[in-house]
Amino acid sequence: MDLIPTIDLTAPDPARIDRALQNAGFLLVTGHGIDPSLPAAIRETARDFFRLPVSAKQPYAVKVGGRGWLGPGAEANGYAEGTETPPDLKESLSFAAEQPTGDAAVDAEWFVPNTWPFEVPDLKPLLADYLAGMKALSDRLLDLLAVSLGRPEDFFTRHTGHPTWGFNINWYPGTDTVGAPQPGQFRIGPHTDFGTVTVLDRQHGKGGLQVFSDRHGWQDAPYDPAALTVNIGDLMARWTDGRWKSGRHRVLPPPADAPAEELLSLVYFYECDPGTDVRGIDSHTYLRAQLDAITAD
């Protein structure tokens, strides 16, 4: 079965997309137009930050949903499923939408300025280019998803005039940094994402991404160095009245036979305009509750 197909965005097949999102909620996409040298430069720069001593990173520490550094033990994604897992074995640099809407209450919660570590000054201009590309790509994907669902092309993007989004640079170090995994502990615990679409630039590894489907259980996600990984979240699944599945996934712990493995993932979470009604729920009330749920402390 074509569980997680590769879709060429220059000649997409809407029926194939529809089938894949019914099965596992995941796609690989090529023809996306993102210059591969850009994520490579972001990884190199972010790695310089993550390898700083904790004392240098601590001034940027935030809780889940904040803009800054999520240190060890800050997040446990399994909590979103109601599972009391140990904290995720990762660190993150988190950024989010910051251009204000003019609504003071909305802006205070969802559009506050990002924090840029002065130790890595090259990061801000690199991310300016990358995040602009992610925004354009996400809207392009939403238009394609609408067509794949048999809806008008702007069915989703009519709700992304001034959307929220989040972006994590996830660092998955080896056991020399995080120690031996506890029972049931992952780099990221089993969960589904919360919003509309997630666009992931990932590295291949033994302790990498796994995807769940009802028919096959947990399987290693296919990898193509030229492709981005796309999955849909809870709001998109709800928007389709359950036709499509929110992609359940996890990231395995550092492998016993490669304990020094280090991976860096770039994760763009695209959402919708604050106040958007998604089949009877307020989208951002739901998003805030889920972010609170995965806060490990």
From TrEMBL:
Pathway, per UniProt?
A: Antibiotic biosynthesis
**Entry keyword annotation includes Oxidoreductase:** yes
Q: Enumerate the InterPro entries for this protein.
A: DIOX_N (IPR026992), IPNS-like_FE2OG_OXY (IPR044861), IPNS-like_sf (IPR027443), Iron_ascorbate_oxido_reductase (IPR050231), Oxoglu/Fe-dep_dioxygenase_dom (IPR005123)
Report keywords, A-Z.
Answer: Antibiotic biosynthesis, Iron, Metal-binding, Oxidoreductase
Q: Provide the protein name.
A: Oxidoreductase
Query: Residue ranges of the Fe2OG dioxygenase domain?
Result: 162-272
Q: Do the record's keywords include Oxidoreductase?
A: yes
Protein family according to the UniProt entry: Belongs to the iron/ascorbate-dependent oxidoreductase family.
